[in-house]
Write a structure and sequence with these properties.
Length: 720
C-alpha cells in the first residue's frame, strides 16, 4: 500500500504506557530511508490484567442496551444472519446482561466481540478502549501458496531488525504451537466474521502474526513456537509477541457523504499499514526512480495516486497496463475516477490488469463510478435497501438525504414488507455514467477473499456489466454486501428533536438563554437555569455545543450538509439511541446491497461473486512480485478482443474538428445532445469529421461498432 502523506499522531510514552513491559522500557523507532517516522516497537507486558481496559458496570449496561437496540431496530442483515447461522444476538445479549458484574474486563470485552463476530458480518464491528494503532505483532509474515500442487504456508517477510537463529524467508511452516499450521488457521477461522469460508480463512491468515489490540484479546500465548522447514531440514524456534505503535491509523471515514455511503474495513486498513510499516518502511517515501522492465511479469510502477499506483507489466504475451488499487477512500465522489483518467494517459492501451487484492473498501459511489471508464455499456449501479422499522422511518425525517426511500418505507410498514425499495446509494443511474468510457482495451480484474465491501461491489458491477474477466486467488471474495456506519453517524441521523436555527446566536455567545430552555421544555426535556454551554466545536463537518445541567450533558448540532436546523441529542434520548461510553467504536450494516442487470435482485452479502479463474499462488508469487499470477492474467488479456478510440478536437470558425484514431472498429455513430448526427464506415484511421460548435455546452457521444456490437463509447463535452 502506498501512502502519499504520512500523518504522525502520538508517539509519546503515554500512548503505550499500558502495554509496555515494566522490565523493558526501551522502544525502537522505525523510520523510512528518507527519515519519515513510521512506527515504533516495544516490549509487551506479560501481565494481561495490567493492559486491559476498564468498563464500569454502568458503561457495560449502556453498551448492552445500545447494541441490543441497534441490532433489533436498525441492523439490516439481522433476520438473514439468524436464519443462515442459527444465532440470535438479541437472546445472547439478554443472557449476558445478568452476569455483567461477574466478568473481568477482558471477559466482558471478549464476550461483546464474540457476540458480534458470530453474526458473520464484517461490517458489524466493535473495538474496545485499547489505543487505536497499538498492535501485538510477531517479526515475520506467513502467506499461503501451492508448492507442487500442495497447499503450503511460507514465511515471506522478516522484520529487518530481527535476529533469527534458524528462520529465514522461504521457510515452509509446518506447525504453530504444536498444531499443524493448516489446521490451526482453519480452527481460528471460526473466530472471524467472514460471511463465507474463503473470507474467514483469509482473515485468519491475515491476522495470524499481527493483531489490533482495540479488537482482539491480548495474545493468550506469551510466545509462539514455530516449526518449519529450511531446505527440507526441520527446525523449531520460539518468538515473543512485541508491541507495535503505528501512528498512521484513521479514526473514522471522512465525514459527509463518504461516511453515509461508506463500505469498508478500518481494521483491515490498519493491519495493512502495520505490515507496510514492519516490512516496507521505504514505501512511505516519495518514489524517486522507475524500475527497468524485466519482461518476467514484475510490475514497473511509474506513478502513484491517493488510492493506487500505476505502470506496466511485460511478459511473453506483451506489455500491458497495470494498476494496483489499494482502497476506495475519497473525499469527493469523482476523485478516484479523475485520478484514473489521468493515469490512463501514461500506461499501455492494449490491455489492463487491475489488481485489488486486499482492497479495504471505502466510498461506495466513488468505487462504482470507476466502472463507466472501462466499458461502452451503460452502468446500472447496485441498489441499497433499509430495513422497514419505525426507527428507520424516524431517521428519514432528520434530513433530505434519504427522501427517495421514504415512500417505500411507509408502504413497507403498511404492507409488512421487510425492506424498502432499492436505490443507488448516491445520485442516479445517469450520475454513474456522466464521464463515460476512457479505457478501451480488455481488462482483467485480480482479487481475493480479503478484498472487501466497496471492492465486492466494484467486482460485482464489473461482472454484471461484462467488462472483463475476474481472476481470484480464492474461491470467493469477502462478500460484504452492505453500507456500514459508525454508531456516531447513526446517532447523528436520529436526533430527538429539532430547534429553530435562530437560537444558534445564543449558543455561539456561550449562553443558555431562557428561549433555549423554553424550547427544550417544549420538547419534554427540562433544563434548569444552572445549565452551562460549552462550544462551539467542530464535528461531523458542522458545529456542536454541549449543554451541561448537573450530571446530564445534552448535545446540540448544526450540520449544514445534513439540514439547516439545530439537532438536539438529550442525555437520555427519547428515540432509544443514547451516547455510547467514550473511546469505543461500534459499527453496523445500515443498508444491504442488491446486484443489478443479469444478477438483478441477487444479494451480495455472503454470496459474493463467481470468478472466471480461481488461481493458486505459487512460491514465486509470494516470495517475489506475483509474477506467475500476472503472467496468468496477461495470458487472459492476450485472448480477449482489443479495441481503441482516441479522440482529438479543435475549433475552427463555427465548427469543431474531430479526429478519431481507432483500432478494431468497423463503424462510428455520432450523437449530439442525444440526437443522431451521423454514421461513418471506418475504412482507415484516423477518421475525421466536423460538427457544429457548441452554443454554451453540448454533449457529443461517439460510439464505435465492431459490426453490430458497440465496443467503444466516448463522451465529450463541447464548449463554445
Amino acid at each position: 500500500m502506498q501512502i502519499t502523506q504520512v500523518v504522525e499522531k502520538s508517539f509519546s510514552e503515554e500512548r503505550i504506557r499500558n502495554f509496555q513491559s515494566a522490565s523493558e522500557k526501551g522502544t525502537k523507532v522505525i523510520t523510512s530511508p528518507q527519515g519519515v517516522t513510521v512506527a515504533r516497537t516495544f516490549s509487551l507486558i506479560e501481565e494481561e490484567e495490567l493492559a486491559t481496559p476498564i468498563y464500569t458496570n454502568a458503561e457495560r449496561r449502556r453498551m448492552i442496551e445500545q447494541i441490543r437496540f441497534v441490532i433489533s431496530e436498525i441492523y439490516v442483515h439481522r433476520t438473514m444472519k439468524e436464519a443462515q447461522f442459527g444465532y440470535d444476538a438479541i437472546r445472547s445479549l439478554d443472557r449476558l446482561e445478568p452476569h455483567l458484574t461477574e466478568l473481568t474486563d477482558e471477559e466482558f470485552h471478549q464476550s461483546i466481540v464474540q457476540l458480534i463476530t458470530r453474526n458473520r458480518d464484517r461490517h458489524l464491528a466493535f473495538y474496545g478502549r485499547n489505543v487505536n494503532g497499538i498492535s501485538a505483532v510477531l517479526p515475520f509474515q506467513i502467506e499461503r501458496c501451492w508448492i507442487e500442487g500442495n497447499e503450503s504456508y511460507v514465511v515471506t517477510k522478516i522484520h529487518p531488525d530481527q535476529d533469527m537463529q534458524y528462520l529465514k524467508a522461504g521457510a515452509v511452516v509446518t506447525h504453530w504451537n504444536g498444531t499443524p499450521i493448516a489446521r490451526h488457521i482453519r480452527l481460528t477461522a471460526n473466530l472471524f466474521d467472514g460471511g463465507n469460508e474463503p473470507a474467514s480463512i483469509a482473515r485468519s491468515l491475515e491476522f495470524l502474526t499481527q493483531r489490533s489490540l482495540s479488537r482482539f484479546a491480548w495474545p493468550i500465548e506469551s510466545w509462539v513456537n514455530l516449526r518449519f522447514l529450511v531446505e527440507d531440514q526441520p527446525f523449531e524456534e520460539r518468538f515473543k509477541w512485541m508491541g507495535f505503535d503505528l501512528g498512521l491509523v484513521p479514526d473514522a471515514p471522512t465525514i459527509g457523504r463518504n461516511a453515509i455511503g461508506f463500505g469498508g474495513d478500518l481494521e483491515l486498513f490498519q493491519n495493512q499499514l502495520v505490515k507496510q510499516a514492519k516490512f516496507m518502511p521505504e514505501s512511505f517515501d516519495e518514489r524517486e526512480t522507475e524500475i527497468d522492465a524485466l519482461g518476467d511479469g514484475t510490475p514497473v510502477i511509474i506513478g502513484q495516486k491517493n488510492n493506487f499506483v500505476f505502470g506496466s507489466v511485460t511478459t511473453a504475451e506483451g506489455t500491458f497496463a497495470y494498476i494496483r488499487l489499494y482502497h476506495f477512500s475519497a473525499s469527493n465522489v469523482d476523485d478516484i475516477a479523475n485520478d484514473m483518467i489521468d493515469a490512463f494517459e501514461h500506461i499501455p492501451r492494449n490491455g489492463l490488469i487491475i489488481d485489488m487484492r486486499g482492497n479495504s473498501g471505502g466510498y461506495i459511489a466513488a468505487g462504482e463510478r470507476l466502472l463507466q471508464l472501462l466499458t461502452p455499456r451503460t452502468i446500472t449501479p447496485t441498489r441499497f435497501q433499509f430495513r422497514a422499522t419505525q426507527t428507520i422511518r424516524r431517521m428519514m425525517t432528520a434530513s433530505s438525504h434519504f427522501d427517495r426511500w421514504k415512500q417505500s418505507i411507509d408502504e413497507a410498514l403498511r404492507t409488512g414488507e421487510a425492506f424498502s425499495q432499492g436505490y443507488p446509494i448516491q445520485g442516479t443511474d445517469a450520475d454513474a455514467n456522466q464521464l463515460g468510457q476512457y479505457y478501451f482495451g480488455p481488462v482483467v480484474l485480480v482479487t481475493d477473499a480479503l478484498a472487501f465491501s466497496t471492492a465486492d461491489m466494484f467486482a460485482a458491477g464489473f461482472i454484471d456489466h461484462s467488462i472483463g474477466r475476474v481472476l481470484c486467488i480464492d474461491k470467493n471474495m469477502a462478500a460484504a454486501g452492505g453500507n456500514n456506519w459508525s454508531f456516531d453517524v447513526l446517532r447523528l441521523f436520529l436526533p430527538a428533536f429539532h430547534l429553530d436555527i435562530a437560537l444558534k446566536a445564543d449558543l455561539d455567545n456561550g449562553i443558555v438563554s431562557e428561549d433555549l430552555r423554553n424550547a427544550f421544555n417544549a420538547n419534554g426535556v427540562s433544563i434548569t437555569s444552572n445549565a452551562t454551554n460549552s462550544g462551539p466545536n467542530s464535528q461531523f463537518g458542522g458545529t456542536i455545543w454541549s449543554v451541561t445541567d448537573g450530571e446530564l450533558r445534552h448535545e446540540i448540532r448544526h450540520v449544514p450538509w445534513m439540514n439547516d436546523t439545530l439537532n438536539v441529542y438529550p442525555a437520555n434520548g427519547s428515540n432509544g439511541l443514547k451516547q455510547l461510553p467514550p473511546n469505543l467504536y461500534f459499527g453496523l450494516t445500515v443498508r444491504r446491497c442488491i446486484r443489478t442487470d443479469p444478477n438483478e435482485g441477487r444479494l451480495l452479502e455472503d454470496l459474493g461473486i463467481r470468478p472466471d479463474i480461481e488461481y493458486q499462488p505459487t512460491l514465486r508469487d509470494v516470495m517475489e512480485h506475483n509474477q506467475d499470477m500476472i503472467i496468468r492474467a496477461t495470458e487472459e488479456l492476450s485472448t480477449m478482443d482489443q479495441y481503441d478510440l482516441r479522440v482529438e478536437t479543435s475549433v475552427t470558425g463555427g465548427h469543431t474538428n474531430v479526429t478519431c484514431h481507432t483500432f478494431g472498429v468497423s463503424d462510428l455513430e455520432i450523437f449530439l445532445d442525444g440526437k443522431h448526427f451521423m454514421s461513418i464506415v471506418v475504412s482507415g484511421t484516423p477518421v475525421e469529421f466536423t460538427v457544429p460548435s457548441a452554443v454554451g455546452e453540448a454533449t457529443m457521444v461517439i460510439k464505435g461498432y465492431d459490426h453490430d456490437q458497440v465496443v467503444t463509447n466516448r463522451l465529450i463535452r463541447l464548449r463554445s
